[in-house]
Write a structure and sequence with these properties.
The protein has 316 residues and is mainly α. The chain has one domain. 79% of the residues lie in helices and 0% in strands. The longest helix has 32 residues.
C-alpha cells in the first residue's frame, strides 16, 4: 500500500523539525553562567528580530493579516508555545536534568493524540493505542534508566524540576492543538507568514522579559561568556524557532492532529542523541531500547493513518 504524498512529506518535515527542536534541550547546559530567564529572553528577542527582518520583505502580504483577532491568538500561542514553555523547560532541565525533562516532555505524543481523537472523522483511539503504548513504554524505559544511574528524588530540586516539566508538557500540548486548529481554519494565511507573525509577538515578549532577566540574577563579566551566550541565542532562535516552527506549521497542515502528536517523538529522540553527544558517551542498553520503541511507535502511527481520510485539506 502506498503512503499518501502528504503523509510522507509531513513525516520528513517532522523529522527535520525534531532534529532542530532537540537543540533546545542542551542549550541550557551550554550557558550555565546565565539564568534560564535570561536565555528565554535572549532567544526570543533574537527570534523576534529575525522575524521582523523577514516581515519587512513581505510587509504588503502580512500587513492585512495583522488583525486584532489574529494578533491576540498569536500572542496567546506565543506565550504557551514559546515563552512560558521554554521558561518551564529550561528550569526543569537545570533542576532535574536532561533525561527526566526529556521523558516528561516525551509524553506529548500521547496528550496531543488524545485531543486529536476527539476530532470528527479522526483515527479511532484503538487504532492508535499500540503506537501510543510503545511511545509510553519508551518514556518509561528512559525513566527507569535515569533512576538506575543515580538520580535521587530525595532533594527538592528534581521534584520541582519534574513539576515544571509537567507544566511545560501541558503548555506545549495546548500550543500544538491550538496552532493546528488555527491553521486548519485559516487557509488564507500561509505557514511561513503565520510563523513570522508569532515570531513578532514572541519577540515583544522577549523584549518585555529582558529587563527582568537582567536584574533577576548576577551576570558574568567575562566577554567570552557573553559571546557564547549570544551565539547560543542566535543559533536556537534561527534553527529551533524561525526554521523549525515554520516546518512545524507545515506538519500541522499536512498531517491530522492524531499523527501530529506522535511526530513530537522525533524531538525526544534527537534530544537524547544530543544529550549523549554532550556527555560524550554512548547510549546504554535501556536507552537504545527506548529509542527503538520510539521509532516503532512512529512507524505504527504512520501505518494507522495510511488509509485514513485527511482532515486538513488546505494547501501548505
Amino acid at each position: 500500500m502506498t503512503i499518501p504524498k502528504n503523509l510522507t512529506l509531513g513525516v520528513i518535515f517532522a523529522i527535520v523539525t525534531g532534529a532542530l527542536w532537540g537543540l533546545v534541550f542542551v542549550a541550557p547546559k551550554t550557558v550555565t553562567a546565565f539564568s534560564p530567564l535570561m536565555l528565554v529572553a535572549g532567544r526570543y528577542l533574537v527570534y523576534g528580530l529575525l522575524a521582523l527582518g523577514l516581515v519587512l520583505f513581505r510587509l504588503r502580504q502580512i500587513l492585512p493579516l495583522l488583525t486584532a483577532k489574529n494578533l491576540a491568538i498569536a500572542f496567546g500561542l506565543a506565550i504557551i508555545g514559546n515563552t512560558l514553555y521554554y521558561l518551564l523547560l529550561t528550569n526543569a532541565i537545570l533542576l532535574a536534568g536532561v533525561p527526566i525533562a526529556t521523558l516528561i516532555i516525551g509524553l506529548m505524543p500521547v496528550t496531543i493524540a488524545l485531543v486529536g481523537c476527539l476530532q470528527k472523522g479522526a483515527v479511532p483511539f484503538m487504532r492508535l493505542a499500540p503506537a501510543l503504548t510503545l511511545g509510553t513504554a519508551a518514556i518509561a524505559l528512559i525513566t527507569l534508566d535515569a533512576f538506575g544511574t543515580g538520580l535521587s528524588l530525595g532533594t527538592a530540586g528534581p521534584i520541582i524540576g519534574m513539576v515544571l516539566a509537567m507544566g511545560a508538557l501541558l503548555s506545549w500540548t495546548g500550543f500544538a492543538v491550538g496552532n493546528s486548529f488555527f491553521l486548519e481554519r485559516h487557509a488564507d494565511i500561509s505557514s511561513e507568514d503565520w510563523n513570522l507573525i508569532i515570531g513578532l509577538v514572541t519577540g515583544l515578549q522577549g523584549l518585555a522579559l529582558m529587563p527582568v532577566a537582567l536584574n533577576h540574577a548576577p551576570l558574568p563579566t567575562d566577554t567570552s561568556l557573553w559571546l557564547n551566550f549570544l551565539f547560543v541565542c542566535v543559533a536556537i532562535a534561527f534553527f529551533a524557532s524561525l526554521v523549525a516552527n515554520a516546518l512545524w506549521n507545515r506538519v500541522s497542515r499536512l498531517l491530522p492532529l492524531t499523527l501530529v502528536g506522535p511526530m513530537v517523538l522525533f524531538e525526544t529522540l534527537f534530544a537524547l542523541l544530543y544529550g549523549f553527544a554532550w556527555e560524550q558517551r554512548l547510549p546504554q542498553f535501556l536507552e537504545i531500547a527506548a529509542m527503538l520503541l520510539m521509532l516503532a511507535s512512529v512507524l505504527l502511527s504512520i501505518r494507522a493513518h495510511r488509509t485514513q481520510p485527511r482532515l486538513h485539506t488546505q494547501p501548505a
